[in-house]
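thought: fold this chain, then report.
action: predict
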Amino acid sequence: MVVAMNAPMMNTPLSALEYYNLVRERLEHEDNLIVQRLTWLVGSQSFLFTAYAIVSNGLMSQPPQPASQHFEEQLQMLFQLIPIVAMLTCVLIYISILAAVMTMRKLRSGYRSRFGPEEDALPSIMTAAPVRSFGLVAPLLLPLVFTTIWLILWMHGQ
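observation:
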C-alpha cells in the first residue's frame, strides 16, 4: 500500500491479517539486520586477524636495523592497536545485534498483547522460544568469543 505524502491518514484499525503481516515483515527485517551484522563481524574479524598476523610476522622476522627504527615503532603500535579496534568492532556490532533482538521481542510482545498467545487462523508469528534461543546462539555469542580472543591477544602482546 503506497500513501501519498500529503494524503490524509485514515484511522481505520488493521485487521488481524494486516497486523500479522506488518509484524511479520518487521520481524523479517530485524532478522535480516542480524544476518548483515554477523556478516560484518566475520568479515571485519578475518581482515583484522590477517592484519594482526602480518604485523606479528613483521615484528618477528628480523632484528631491527637502525634505518628501520621508525618502521619498527609503527609495527609495534599496530600490534597494540589492532586488538583494540577489533574489540571495539565486536562490541559495537554486538550492541546492534542486541538492539535487533530486543526489537523482535517487543514486536512479539505487542502481537501477543493484541491477539493472545497465538491467533488460531494464522501461522505462528515466530518459532517456539527454545528454537529461537538456539538460533540466537551464534549472533549473541560470536561477538563475545571474538572479543575474548582479542582481549587475550592484546593482554599477551603488552
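thought: worth noting. The longest helix spans residues 69-115.
final: C-alpha cells above.
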